[in-house]
Amino acid sequence: MDQFLKAVKITDKVYWVGVIDWNLRNFHGYITEAGSTYNAFLVIDEKITLIDTVKEPFYDQMMARIRSVIDPARIDYIVSDHSEMDHTGALPLAIRDIKPEKVFASPNGEKNLNAQLKLGMDVTVVKTGDSVSIGKNKLQFVQTQMLHWPDSMFTYLSDEKILFSQDAFGRHFACSKLFYDEHDRGQMEWEGEKYFANILMPYSKQLLKLLEELPGLNLDIDYIFPDHGPLLRRPEDIARTLELYRKWAEQKPLKRAIVIYDTMWHATERMTASIADGIRSTGVDTEEISVRHNNRSYVITQLSRSGAIVAGSSTLNNNLLPSMADVLTYLRGLKPKNKIGFAFGSSGWSGEAVNQVAAYLTETSVELVNDGVTCKYSPSPEVLQACFEAGRELGMQLISKVDSNSNQ
Amino acid sequence: MKKYECEVCGYVYDPAAGDPDNGIAPGTAFEDLPESWVCPECGVDKSNFTAID
């Protein structure tokens, strides 16, 4: 393995020593069609420093890349910016073999590392404003609590002007071309928004606060190197990424709607089509998303781009369909803001699903515009007309909400 | 009345402001919050809070 896996020199003193996970398709429930990378970085200065590590099964690959530059035993410091296992699973092995002088982490990082792993050494705690000289460079630390874990922090490398941003500003995207500008921009922005929607959306408030505070930290940033996906080196890509993050986190209402549903015998599906046509009749772009054919990560990403969500389910054994419960539970946890919508569905007899879907939407802070649209068995022309009208009413309310928001 | 900080996420409970979104009136001391109260930012319970000056 050693003869093929090489580190990649990415700046004067910094090498990429991460790994590519081509086969990752489900990251604790986040569906990752494009795989991912776990980025780790080797800084060659008077104190040789390893910034973050990788998932435990990839430990040998990371070490092979390090060995292509230096004997790993020469590493003095390891920084753990984020204690989640995709960046720390290999840390105990790295400590065992490297025997570093110090391991740095935030206060919550120390707690989490010790609660998850047996490190075999003490962690040196660092906070926002702390810095450690490693020779020509200083490591400066910025705590980014809840972006996206209690321990999260950024490390800034002063002379190379690199912000190591751990799980912010990245994307799950397996690639051997390491730089952002070597990829299709549309694909990068889609995967970036998907990453925001699936990981960072619940912490939008903290994200906006960080974006506000970042200029005041006086960090001269030439590079942003996240822990997943391609690395940012062009000023225009860095500026655009920060601008997009602000836009996503603001969650302003948008003139776009999604209708998500699952159906047993096509009745709820036919209601979906009429509701969607009703919304479209107001000029609002509307996507119909069957959750049987699309995964939860796709749905939340489309919701991030929409101001309205309509959700429908047949009733199965007095309950909503399990596929809808999956997606609605996932959406509820990601706490989207500023959405309007309603519930609907067809049933044979008891019809509990519509109220259950409505309850999910309410718990997700979706403002309901009606009490739900119901149907027994197959929808009659009258029911389909009622669906169309409910969609049209929602579309009009969305337009007025967006217009009044943009006039503020 | 002292302010309390959530060790997990950094949220600060200010008794002067209370937590009206979750039914806690302004002027409620941290000690008087019901045991069922959780951090409005990250969801952990009262035992994860420490007093700050």
Structural description of this entry:
The complex is a heterodimer of chains A (408) and B (53). By secondary structure, chain A is α/β, with parallel strands linked by helices. Chain A contains twelve helices and 24 strands. In chain A, the strands form six sheets. Chain A has a seven-stranded mixed β-sheet with strand order 1-2-7-8-9-10-11. In chain A, helix 5 (185-200) packs across helix 9 (296-304), helix 6 (204-213) crosses helix 7 (235-250) and helix 8 (267-280) packs across helix 12 (381-406). Chain A is elongated, with a radius of gyration of 24 Å. The model of chain A has no long low-confidence stretch (mean pLDDT 97). With 53 residues, chain B is mainly β. Helices cover 0% and strands 19% of the residues of chain B. Chain B has strands spanning 3-6, 12-13, 49-52. Chain B has a three-stranded antiparallel β-sheet, with no helix packed on it. In chain B, a hairpin with a 5-residue loop joins strand 1 and strand 2. The radius of gyration of chain B is 10 Å and the shape is globular. Chain B starts with a strand and ends with a strand. The relative contact order of chain B is 0.34. The mean pLDDT of chain B is 94. The chains are: A alpha/beta (408), B mainly beta (53).
